[in-house]
Specification:
Elements (H helix, E strand, L loop, with lengths): L1 H21 L2 E9 L8 E7 L10 H14 L3 E4 L12 H13 L3 E4 L3 H5 L6 H7 L3 E2 L4 E4 L2 E6 L20 E5 L14 E4 L10 H9 L4 E5 L2 E5 L17 E9 L1
Length: 258
């Protein structure tokens, strides 16, 4: 009887973990600031991290992710890395969904590399693919969009914000896009929001606690160094299509004027 019970429990647990990995939901967060341009009451940022197109990921799973993006109606759409994780042959449908989402973003679509984009760079032109889908790929650079400043820092280093800031940024909303959640070395007082991913929330409880300690991060929204930091659980999965108590997400952040 104990063997039958153990087998049944394992089966139920496996099915639950597979369901959780598939069942991506939109996670809504609101932050307030006095730095939005005059006349702008709200700016909606939607971001996707760690979708891991390739390997065991499926079109129907990615279709659900992008349907949530479409329903959120982003002003700005952002990809924070580990979107591509395999050879893109026969992945035309997924890339078409990425392109459609970029075209619908009201003010623009931006992306940064994750470690998995670099893993596959020798086999696939991951950077060219992202650009061809309509995203402005930022690699250690700045951009401006609707009066806010966007700064990207590459995946493998925490980096410094100082080289990318201009005197006029003092009164602007500064957003940092960075795949890994470690803060820039000079972050204190220099940014308003950092969006990151990479950790998957550990993917399996309680591994998230150890990942958070290793990355010196907190899942979800936190306040650090004078700004907000949001670390996404990610929309996909790494390896087996399984998660346990670390639900995947598409992140919707409403930046609201005070």
């Amino acid at each position: 009887k104990m063997i039958v019970f153990a087998v049944a429990l394992s089966l139920v647990g496996t099915l639950y973990c597979m369901f959780e990995a598939y069942y991506v939901t939109a996670r809504h967060v609101e932050i307030r600031t006095h730095k939005l341009p005059s006349g702008m009451e709200r700016l909606r940022l939607v971001y996707v991290s760690d979708a891991h197109i390739g390997g065991l990921s499926t079109h129907w799973h990615f279709e659900r992710i992008m349907r949530l993006v479409d329903e959120a109606k982003p002003d700005i759409l952002a990809l924070t890395g580990d979107i591509i994780d395999g050879v893109m042959t026969y992945r035309e449908r997924e890339l078409a969904l990425l392109s459609q989402a970029a075209k619908k973003a009201k003010y623009g679509a931006f992306a940064v590399n994750g470690n998995h984009e670099y893993y596959w760079l020798l086999d696939e032109d991951t950077e060219g693919i992202i650009r061809d889908c309509g995203y402005r790929l930022l690699i250690n650079e700045r951009a401006e969009c609707q009066g806010i400043t966007i700064i990207s820092l590459d995946d493998d280093l925490n980096g410094w914000l100082r080289p990318y800031l201009k005197p006029e940024d003092a009164g602007k909303f500064v957003m940092v896009m960075k795949h890994r959640p470690g803060l820039p070395f000079d972050a204190e007082g220099k940014f308003d929001l950092q969006i990151s991913g990479h950790t998957h929330g550990g993917q399996f409880w309680p591994l998230g606690y150890f990942k958070a300690m290793a990355q010196k991060s907190t899942q979800g929204l936190s306040e650090k160094a004078g700004g907000y930091v949001y670390v996404s659980n990610g929309a996909g999965f790494n390896g087996a299509m399984m998660r346990m108590f670390t639900p995947p997400e598409v992140t919707v952040i409403d930046i609201v004027s005070e």
